[in-house]
Design a protein that fits this description.
The protein has one domain (20-86). The model has no long low-confidence stretch (mean pLDDT 89). It is built from no helices and two strands. The protein is mostly loops. The structure holds calcium ion (3 copies).
Length: 86
């Protein structure tokens, strides 16, 4: 038996309703085959709120945040656990 939850998040500038375009995720109960890094075309790159006020200075790979993932000259936070590094 599996339990699937669908949460309705309030709309706002820090929520998206499109696919995050991560490297690999399969909702199969096995997290060892998932890779939540962002792909180059991910809409999560450089769109998150500034998290420095919360003490967020690196990602789950210990990459210093924020990174200029879209190479526009501005270092901004990505949504999710990992910064995209071009
Ligand atoms: Ca999986
Ligand atoms: Ca970024
Ligand atoms: Ca940028």
């Amino acid at each position: 038996m599996s339990l699937r939850l669908r949460l309705r998040l309030p709309s706002g500038p820090t929520n998206i309703s499109v696919a995050p375009e991560i490297v690999a995720f399969s909702d199969n109960g096995d997290h060892t085959d998932d890779d939540l890094h962002l792909t180059a075309s991910s809409p999560c790159i450089d769109v998150a709120s500034d998290a420095i006020i919360y003490g967020v200075v690196d990602d789950y790979d210990d990459v210093a945040r924020p990174v200029d993932g879209d190479v526009d000259g501005y270092e901004r936070y990505d949504m999710g656990a990992f910064e995209y590094v071009p």
